[in-house]
Amino acid sequence: MSAPAEASFLNPRIAGPFLLVALIWGSTWWVITGQIDGVPAAWAVVWRFVIAAPAMAILALATGKSLRIGAKGQRLAMLVGLTQFCGNYMFVYESERHLTSGIVAVMLSLLFVPNMLLGWLWLGQRITRQFALGSLVAIAGIALLFVNEAQTGGIGGNVWLGVALAFGGMIAAAVANVVQANDTGRSLPMASLLAWSMAWGVAIDVVFALVTAGPPVIPSSLGFWAGTAYLALAGSVVTFPLYFGLVRNLGAGRAAYNGVLVVVLAMFLSTVLEGYRWTGLAVAGCMLALAGLVIALWGRK
Question: Using CB atoms within 10 A of its CB, is residue 91 exposed (0-12), middle (13-18) or buried (19+)?
Fold first, then answer.
């Protein structure tokens, strides 16, 4: 199964959501750093989706979609909740304790690689040689960024643990991206599926947080809750229906290419707000990573 032939990046119905998702997600990486400052990452994820899940359900009902998705839909929602709204976010939030937010964003831009591999295995989507070449170039660039992060000390955490956590988040997100594009997922209203997926995710997140972080931590900071609301509403309720719509229209691989813009914005914010230090190695790594993304994108034009 491949993306429809008319699904072009030049189509305003594709380009608009593509750009909006990139701009919002590019900013969320830095916002997350404030959510894990003195708050266990697991509980920060819980509070994000405690807000996002009912908001997504309201969006579904407001747009005339039923929340009845059947037994197959619930099984799919549970899987997406486990992989996307628990696994992906738990890994990513924890990784930002060890890596600057821009570096985590750069690594997650490699999402298109497992997206396409899983899309090839499960959905029959074709992989071109140019796509493979671009992927290798991007991986080489990101490897240089990791070496630079380790040499400069990053934000003082365990750099390679942060890399492993970010990798786990990427794989979890790739599984969620591809499984929701199966026949069951395509037959369901996007907002309804996401509302239930987030609800299942909250239930799983709470259990995980209780086991790993202890009793609930409820911050009193207005800044924390403002950031949580932004991540829940803009970063999840607005963007996920748009992004998974891109997955369905463009294919799992091409939908991940908004990572090019996400990386640019995330690295800009890391430079301005986190004091990211640009060395020759970092510049070379970033240029290679972006070049690889563009080569892969061109190969899937």
Answer: buried
- The count of structural domains within the chain is 1
Query: Is residue 265 domain-resident?
Result: yes
5 found inside a domain: no
Are 176 and 84 in contact, with CB atoms under 8 Å apart? yes
Domain contains 120: yes
User: 294-297: long-range contacts at Cβ-Cβ below 8 A with a sequence spacing of 24 or more?
Assistant: 294/134, 294/260, 295/130, 295/133, 295/134, 295/137, 295/138, 296/112, 296/130, 296/131, 296/133, 296/134, 296/135, 296/138, 296/257, 297/134, 297/254, 297/257, 297/260
Residues 125 and 206 sit within 8 Å (Cβ to Cβ):
no
Predicted confidence (pLDDT) per residue in 61-88, tens digit: 999 999 999 999 999 999 999 999 999 9
With b meaning 16 or more CB within 10 Å and e meaning fewer, what string describes 160-183?
eebbebbbbbbbbbbbbbbbbbee
- Which residues span the domain enclosing 113? 21-299
* pLDDT at site 179: 84
- 266 found inside a domain: yes
